[in-house]
């Protein structure tokens, strides 16, 4: 009787492990599929928005500094999507760069406005300074305390780079 219970326990554990492995595999597939779909949607939306902004600038016959900064923001979003596609890590620094550029656009609008106080300009300038300090801290931290990339992650990145080189020609 005890041998039968032991065998039943072993069989149950094996079945449980197999079910968990299957669920993990399906879960990873669904998460990866969602990430890829979301990346393509975000990338396509970024290209679409940048093209629409450029067409609008061309229709006006000129581009202001704020318009050019907007195009830089689209460029940073595109770079962030590309980095996430290759490494599956979100580069926080790029989000901060986008925020600094957006605040630069706001600063240009504030300086151009007639009824603004110096406090508005000062607040935006301090916000840009704080974000710049955050980038400095992140860069120092990533240099001083590099993240541990597992062998599997580095192999995945290497494989993706090889495939990309083959596609590029």
Description:
This protein is mainly α and 169 residues long. The chain has one domain. The relative contact order is 0.06.
Question: What is the compact description of this entry?
Answer:
This protein has helices at residues 2-60, 65-87, 92-112, 118-144, 151-168.
Which helices and strands occur, and which strands form pairs?
Blueprint: H1 2-60, H2 65-87, H3 92-112, H4 118-144, H5 151-168
Helix pairs in contact: 1-2, 2-3, 3-4
Key attributes of the depicted protein:
mainly alpha, 169 residues, single chain
Average residue-wise pLDDT:
84
Radius of gyration: 25 Å
Biggest sheet record? none
Number of strands: 0
The total tally of domains equals: 1
SSE sequence, one letter per element: HHHHH
Helix-residue proportion: over 70%
What structural class do the secondary elements suggest?
mainly alpha
Name the poorly predicted regions.
none
Residues in β-strands, percent: under 5%
The coarse overall form would be elongated
In whole angstroms, the N-to-C terminal distance is 66 Å
Query: How many helices?
Result: 5
């Amino acid at each position: 009787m005890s041998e039968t219970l032991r065998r039943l326990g072993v069989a149950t554990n094996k079945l449980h492990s197999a079910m968990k492995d299957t669920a993990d595999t399906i879960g990873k597939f669904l998460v990866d599929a969602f990430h890829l779909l979301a990346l393509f949607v975000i990338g396509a939306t970024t290209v679409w928005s940048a093209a629409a902004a450029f067409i609008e600038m061309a229709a006006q016959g000129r581009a202001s500094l704020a318009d050019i900064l907007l195009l830089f923001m689209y460029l940073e979003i595109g770079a962030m999507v590309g980095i996430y596609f290759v490494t599956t890590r979100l580069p926080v620094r790029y989000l901060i760069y986008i925020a600094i550029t957006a605040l630069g656009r706001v600063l240009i609008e504030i300086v151009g406005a007639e009824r603004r106080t110096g406090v508005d300009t000062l607040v935006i300038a301090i916000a840009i300074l704080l974000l710049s300090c955050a980038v400095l801290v992140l860069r120092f931290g990533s240099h001083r305390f590099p993240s541990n990339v597992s062998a599997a992650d580095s192999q995945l990145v290497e494989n993706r780079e090889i495939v990309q080189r083959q596609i590029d020609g």
